Structures are given as structure tokens and as C-alpha cells.
């Protein structure tokens, strides 16, 4: 279903929480809520848990989660929850792997030669070089077992935003494509636009 079609079913009068759409998302929401209670806000990263991939099937993982030792107040113990996450989840970001952009050039021929100030030019080259660090593709394991992951099994390479944002996002893709075209790569543009089209099908 296209995004525009799904949005047409929403209205400004809709209220209440977002309802998870898959059993995996529902389960990860449970883990996230437990982590907030266990680790408290100071040691809690709300983005971490939705980026985790299962090592085993969902039913096995859910059963193990229900058996994690609880403290006297009913919350999960810190040691128990950390041990569970380490045993049953892959590391965040493991569902994407690095791939070198094939037509990257260290000094783009478009806008950069027009930059005359040497300090600004050096800074621009440093920023431009970041593209090489942001290129990713979905791992083969995701394509083999998509049910263990929240990420879509996208067919082409993508550019991620970076830092703790380890996956490709629809809105970011628009700006990425514009900047990639400006910086160096018609090839990566074609791959990224293909992936963006996948979001809508």
C-alpha cells in the first residue's frame, strides 16, 4: 500500500497511542517499557530497543523474557535484563553493513572548485568525506530472516544519517538524494531513489 493511501485513512480527530502493527514491534515495545522501569531515565536510550534484531524466533524470545528474574517491586533486575538483551538480541545496527560507494570522488567537480577560501575548502572536503562512512546496505541475514528484524529488507545501498541513527529514513532520503547529486554520485542517487520507491510500494 502506498504511504499516501495509508495516510488517507487518518484524520486530525484520531486520538490515543500508536498501535504496533506487528508482533515483533509489540514485543519490542514491552522490552522498551521494561528497560525504562529498570534502568531509569538517566540510563535509558529510547531509540536503542527498536533497532535490535532477534537472534532466535519471536516465541522463544518472548518466553525467555517472561522468565527473566524480577525484583521485589515487580520490575526486572538490571542484571537480568542486561543478560537477556545480550543473549537474545543482536547489537543495534547489525542489520546494516558497510558498502563502499562505487563512484565516490575525494574532490567533487561541481560546487567545491568554486570555494576559494582555503579554510572553508578544507572543511568542505572533510564534510564531503563523511559520505564514505555513511554508505550501507541491508545485511544478508535480514534478507534470509526478515521476521527477526524491524528494518525493511531494502534491495539497494543507502545513505544513513549517522551517529545513533543507524537506518535509512524516508524524510532523510529526500535530503540525502539532493546532497549526493550535488556532491558526487549519480549511481548512488539511482540506488537511493530505487530504495525510496520501495517505501511507497
Automatic annotation (TrEMBL):
This is alpha,alpha-trehalase. It is an enzyme of class 3 (hydrolase). One of its GO terms (biological process) is trehalose catabolic process. Gene3D superfamilies: 1.50.10.10. It holds the Pfam family Trehalase. Belongs to the glycosyl hydrolase 37 family. Its EC number is 3.2.1.28. One of its GO terms (molecular function) is alpha,alpha-trehalase activity.
Amino acid at each position: 500500500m502506498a504511504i499516501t493511501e495509508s495516510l488517507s485513512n487518518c484524520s486530525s480527530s484520531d486520538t490515543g497511542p500508536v498501535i504496533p502493527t506487528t508482533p515483533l514491534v509489540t514485543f519490542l515495545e514491552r522490552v522498551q517499557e521494561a528497560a525504562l522501569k529498570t534502568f531509569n531515565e538517566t540510563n535509558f536510550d529510547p531509540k536503542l530497543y527498536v533497532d535490535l534484531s532477534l537472534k532466535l524466533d519471536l516465541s522463544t524470545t518472548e518466553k525467555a523474557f517472561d522468565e527473566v528474574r524480577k525484583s521485589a517491586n515487580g520490575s526486572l533486575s538490571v542484571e537480568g535484563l542486561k543478560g537477556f538483551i545480550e543473549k537474545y538480541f543482536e547489537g543495534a545496527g547489525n542489520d546494516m553493513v558497510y558498502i563502499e560507494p562505487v563512484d565516490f570522488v575525494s574532490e567533487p567537480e561541481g560546487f567545491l572548485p568554486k570555494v576559494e577560501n582555503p579554510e572553508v575548502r578544507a572543511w568542505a572536503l572533510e564534510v564531503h568525506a563523511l559520505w564514505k562512512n555513511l554508505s550501507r546496505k541491508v545485511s544478508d541475514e535480514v534478507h534470509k530472516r526478515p521476521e527477526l528484524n524491524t528494518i525493511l529488507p531494502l534491495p539497494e545501498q543507502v545513505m544513513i544519517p549517522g551517529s545513533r541513527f543507524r537506518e535509512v529514513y524516508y524524510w532523510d532520503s529526500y535530503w540525502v538524494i539532493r546532497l549526493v547529486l550535488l556532491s558526487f554520485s549519480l549511481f548512488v542517487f539511482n540506488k537511493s531513489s530505487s530504495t525510496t520507491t520501495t517505501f511507497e510500494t
